[in-house]
């Protein structure tokens, strides 16, 4: 478990690249916010969590399997993860933040990520990449 990364994961990078390509600018992993969201859009009062299906228990997903050994340990761990996620999202919403969860399995289709981001954050009016300023 020591090799499990909490930041800069593959799914997170897919979402970050899509958001940047669409013209959104954001902050990463702001520790002052509950749950330390993966992407923070301060001017839009919006946050995005990019959750791994296994660790955060995406219902109905094939990646949400249960390890065969130490079942009680894993059930308790997963229950804590889900509860902690729910509490963080509730606290953010109570503080006036809009919250979106993007699941790992959803990042396999980048065109869907673009639509999800635009639907959640709103159109930026500049869907084109920013030109180099050299």
TrEMBL record:
SUPFAM superfamilies: Restriction endonuclease-like (SSF52980). Keywords: DNA damage, DNA repair, Endonuclease, Hydrolase, Nuclease. One of its GO terms (biological process) is mismatch repair. Its EC number is 3.1.-.-. Pfam families: Vsr. GO terms for molecular function: endonuclease activity; hydrolase activity. It comes from the Bacteria. It is an enzyme of class 3 (hydrolase). May nick specific sequences that contain T:G mispairs resulting from m5C-deamination. Belongs to the vsr family. This is Very short patch repair endonuclease. It comes from Methylobacterium hispanicum.
